[in-house]
Structure formats: C-alpha cells, structure tokens
Design goal:
Length: 88
C-alpha cells in the first residue's frame, strides 16, 4: 500500500490540471486503481484534498461504488499547491 501521501496529492492534482480543457474530467486516470491504492485510502485522500480546498466536486455516498467525481475540478488553491510543491 502506498504511503507517499504528498506524492499522491501531486499526482492527483497533475491529472486533474492536465484535463482543464476537457468537458468532463476522466477520473479513471487518478482513481484508486490508477494510483495503486486501496479504495478507502483513495477516498480519504480525496476527502482530505477537498477539505483543504485543493479540489471541489468529490462526494462519497457511503458504499463501495458510491463516490461521485463527475464534476471534480481543481481549485485555484490546488493550482497554487501544485506550483509550490511540484518536484523540480
């Protein structure tokens, strides 16, 4: 199981930012499977990122398939975090 939490945050923000020109964000590019994470870990990371204002549009509905990322988007704060923390 991955424990490189800050690297995971950067990866997710990069994947979302790379899709800014798309009508719909393809969350399969940064879901638990794509990031080699467990589902609970992924949900907690997404909730944490939303709590901190890095992303908006994530919602967990309570069952294994009950998460919604249809309208997920990176925020200005998320772009700033990415700029300030991306490895050079």
């Amino acid at each position: 199981m991955r424990t490189d939490h800050f690297t995971i945050i950067i990866e997710i923000l990069e994947k979302i930012a790379a899709q800014l020109n798309e009508y719909c964000i393809d969350w399969s590019k940064f879901n638990a499977s794509a990031l080699n994470m467990t589902e609970p870990h992924w949900h907690r990371m997404m909730a944490m990122m939303q709590d901190e204002g890095l992303v908006k549009g994530y919602e967990y509905m309570g069952d294994r398939e009950g998460y919604c990322t249809k309208n997920i988007r990176i925020t200005l704060k998320g772009l700033q975090y990415l700029r300030d923390n991306k490895p050079r």
